[in-house]
Design a protein that fits this description.
- With 384 residues, this protein is mainly α.
- It contains 19 helices and 2 strands.
- It has a two-stranded antiparallel sheet.
- It starts with a helix and ends with a helix.
- The N terminus is likely disordered.
């Protein structure tokens, strides 16, 4: 762990945050959202494909796995996301957002591509399958760390809340794509070829996005935080130019809007924990509770949805993807329709309201399921 004197540099007074916040929406911001938001689409695509294939992978003509073994695929993917978020998140702070955009996307492409190469059989091939899901998950976990930071750092403040929600909501656009892909492939290709082809769709999309990301500038906030003033000035000038803001035709900002930034050379995990739980304990506990409950309850439903439909409601494996359409559409409409309320009504009211409402609906659905009052269609409507 670096000492305080090693970790700190003289403060820099900068107008860069104010210059970012004064920008209006432009083609640059649209391009940035598309290039970075694809991470959530890829995650939704991966999870949905894996969920839709749960029933198919238990068949003798594919991998002939047990239901428990197939369910574990999602668990290993999540473990990979945690590893990726921790490892690549730190590297993102050290090496920059732009550098990590390319690395994490490359890791995901390799992991997902290798998944499709898994052969049938127990033992070594099952380990290989789980290992490839860890690699793919690590890439996506790293994407989250770098991309959410970049959006927060490069998006004007008045758009930040709704854009964060909308970008995270594109997970469900990926879910819709994944549902369409698996439905088409499982019904038009032999089972063993169909599931393999499905896992190549994400890497194909990722390869296209690499070309867009290459031309994005580095985050000027990250550069100024690392004492790179000249590079930060060049990046913000590029962003302003691409946003249609010509330097010689705009009034200079008042110096009172400048903020003092102390560059940090090294931020370790212990320093991060200290800041979170000594300076902001209530906020950190709240956020952890929200993320843990969301992940546990939501993913527990979604990751095993295909198994529930097949085992409890006897839905044929090739028909499972149909039920994901309604589920994914509802989740995509949520951020697109009520996302702006997080900026207008406020975070506190909206977070509390949406969590409480979801919790109540889950309890009601669980009771109906326990009493045997639901079929595949009504179960889907309840979860929608």
């Amino acid at each position: 762990m670096a000492t305080a004197s090693e970790a700190r540099s003289p403060a820099i007074r900068s107008l860069i945050p104010a210059r970012i916040d004064r920008l209006g929406w432009s083609k640059f911001h649209t391009r940035m959202v598309i290039a970075l938001g694809v991470a959530w689409i890829l995650d939704g695509l991966e999870i949905t494909i894996a969920s839709n294939l749960t029933a198919a992978l238990t068949q003798k003509s594919t991998l002939n796995m047990s239901a428990a073994g197939v369910a574990d695929i999602a668990t290993w993917y999540l473990i990979g996301e945690i590893i990726g978020a921790l490892v690549f998140g730190r590297l993102s702070d050290k090496l920059g957002r732009k550098n990590l955009f390319m690395v994490t996307l490359g890791v995901y492409l390799i992991g997902s591509g290798l998944t499709a190469a898994t052969m049938a059989g127990a033992g070594g091939w099952v380990v290989f399958l789980y290992a490839t899901r860890v690699i793919a998950g690590a890439g996506i976990g790293g994407e989250y760390a770098a991309i959410n930071s970049a959006i927060d750092e490069m998006m004007p403040a008045r758009y930040r809340g709704r854009i964060d929600i909308a970008v995270n909501g594109t997970y469900w656009a990926g879910a819709l794509i994944g549902t369409t892909v698996t439905l088409a492939l499982l019904n038009h290709l032999p089972p063993d070829l169909g599931w393999r082809t499905a896992f190549f769709v994400g890497p194909a999309l990722g390869l296209c996005i690499i070309l867009v990301r290459r031309h994005l500038p580095e985050s000027p906030r990250w550069q100024i935080m690392h004492g790179r003033e000249q590079e930060a000035e060049a990046s913000i000038a590029q962003i302003e130019a691409e946003s249609g803001l010509e330097k010689d035709k705009v009034s200079p900002l008042d110096e009172s809007k400048a903020i003092e930034i102390v560059p940090s050379r090294r931020i370790g995990y212990l320093s991060l924990v200290k800041v979170l739980f000594s300076r902001y304990p209530d906020r950190s506990i709240l956020v952890a509770a929200l993320m843990i409950t969301q992940s546990f309850l939501y993913n527990a439903i979604f990751f095993t949805y295909g198994l529930v439909l097949a085992k409890f409601f006897r839905v044929p494996a090739n028909d499972v993807p149909y039920y994901f359409y309604a589920f994914a559409a509802g989740n995509l409409l949520g951020p697109l329709t009520i996302g702006r309320l997080f900026d207008s009504l406020g975070r506190k009211k909206m977070i509390a309201g949406t969590y409480i409402l979801s919790g109540v609906l889950l309890v009601i659905t669980a009771q109906l399921f326990k009493n045997g009052q639901l079929d595949a269609t009504t179960q889907t409507l309840c979860w929608l």
